[in-house]
Write a structure and sequence with these properties.
This is Polysaccharide pyruvyl transferase. Keywords: Transferase. It comes from Methanobacterium lacus (strain AL-21). One of its GO terms (molecular function) is transferase activity. The chain is α/β, with parallel strands linked by helices and about 400 residues long. The chain folds into 2 domains: about 190 residues, 3-Layer(aba) Sandwich (Rossmann fold), CATH 3.40.50; about 190 residues, 3-Layer(aba) Sandwich (Rossmann fold). It is built from 14 helices and 14 strands. Strand 1, helix 1 and strand 2 form a beta-alpha-beta unit. It is elongated and about 75 Å long. The termini are close together. The mean pLDDT is about 90.
């Protein structure tokens, strides 16, 4: 069995966490499976090289790419037709379509690649999925948050594409509602959980080594934070920008150090050049008044190492989905800053932590301060809540692999 995982990027550690967890879960159920990764990166995940994925694009400004994209869609359809007619037809290895055709199953495990938060750019992901559909491959959406497109034409395209994939595994109830409301075939939908809840953490000795190398003082309680400049893009208020986000974090940090006598640990979770969390983290550090009590993770670590670092926190405030999955699955009380329905659906509703989710459009110092004080005072009780719910969520995460195996076995 050969499985292709698409839209892979090693610099975004949330994406890496998804890919690693997906591979390990599927290996548990199908040990002999061979995995191939394609994406925009050129590194490795889980000792697997990321092959270059053709960058599909529909753009008036880039007519050459648009023409090539339509050509590849036509070519995939032609290949399938020739095979239906009983003739052998192969795609050359040098073709960008080779890996789509080489495998038995194509899986997108991208988290929110098919959500409405990214505007018209989501069309490119639908095209990448369509190559596999046109070639007649089994296509699976694995652990996704999707839907809620602001453009009715994209919604129409989504309905067509989603009704043609073989299995849709969604990680939040809002995505299930979207699919049902838009008449997506109910028989192929399953409500599971994000694969990364199953991500293994590195051994304690390795965590200690990393913290020592980063010169982190662990003698005091630690409040971890994952600020991201990305979220300001989704702030629709008049004053929504990076500087607003930075100032709120600075004031919260000052409060925690002054009033709670804690150390602050600023942790990046995306190292993609344009969206590198370390940029906004460094700005926060430079503007803070208590630098001796603030520690910054400067190195680049894989998601298992980052989860280990996050697990040492007594409380966590996260902007990125998988930073908060790393914290909550480590039983760390967590405040999530939501820029889409995924944070509300997963950390909020699934984990029973709705009280501690703050929408980016409501994000201000006073509202965050109220949540911080509440969580700090009740962190022991919140940890007990997580101790109960996380094992149940991990079972739902494992269900992803079981359902994929059942699909493959039923049609083999």
């Amino acid at each position: 069995m050969k499985i292709l995982l698409t839209n892979v990027g090693e610099k975004n550690k949330g994406n890496s966490a998804l890919i690693i967890s997906t591979i390990e879960t599927l290996k548990h159920y199908m040990p002999k499976t061979k995995f191939i990764l394609i994406g925009g990166g050129n590194g490795e995940i889980n000792n697997l090289k990321i092959e270059k994925q053709f960058s599909s694009e529909l753009s008036i400004k880039k007519p050459d790419k648009t023409i090539k994209t339509f050509y590849y869609l036509f070519y995939c359809s032609l290949i399938r037709l020739i095979r239906i007619l009983g003739f052998n037809c192969s795609i050359k290895k040098k073709s960008p379509l080779y890996y789509y055709d080489y495998v038995d199953v194509v899986i997108n495990s991208g988290g929110d690649h098919f959500s409405g938060e990214y505007g018209i750019a989501v069309l490119n992901n639908f095209i990448n999925l369509s190559y596999s559909i046109f070639l007649g491959k089994k296509v699976i959406l694995y652990g996704e948050s999707l839907g809620y497109y602001k453009n009715k034409n994209i919604n129409w395209i989504a309905r067509i594409v989603f009704n043609r994939v073989d299995l849709i595994l969604v990680r939040d109830e809002l995505s299930v509602k979207y699919l049902h409301d838009n008449h997506i075939n109910n028989n192929k939908i399953a409500f599971t959980a994000d694969p990364a809840f199953l991500l293994e953490v590195i051994p304690e000795s390795e965590i200690v080594t990393i913290l020592k190398s980063e010169k982190v003082d662990i003698k005091k309680p630690i409040v971890g934070m994952n600020p991201s400049g990305l979220i300001s893009r989704f702030d629709k208020t008049e004053c929504g920008n990076d500087e607003k986000i930075i100032q709120i974090f600075v004031k919260i940090i000052d409060y925690l150090i002054e009033e709670k006598n804690v150390n602050i640990l600023l942790i990046p979770h995306d190292y993609t050049p344009y969206y590198d969390d370390r940029k906004v983290i460094n700005s926060i550090f430079e503007k803070s008044n208590y630098k001796s009590s603030i520690f910054v993770i400067n190195g680049e670590y894989d998601p298992r190492e980052l989860k280990g670092i996050i697990s040492k926190c007594d409380m966590f405030i996260g902007s990125r989905m998988h930073a908060t999955i790393a914290s909550t699955s480590s039983l760390v009380p967590t405040i999530g800053i939501a820029y889409s329905h995924k944070m509300k659906g997963i950390i909020g509703k699934m984990l029973g932590q709705e009280k501690y989710i703050i929408d980016i459009n409501d994000f201000d110092y006073q509202k965050l301060l109220i949540l911080v004080i509440d969580m700090w005072n009740n962190r022991a009780d919140i940890k007990k809540e997580l101790e109960i719910v996380i094992p149940l969520v991990k079972e739902k995460s494992s269900l992803n692999g079981k359902l994929v195996k059942e699909l493959i076995m039923s049609e083999s």
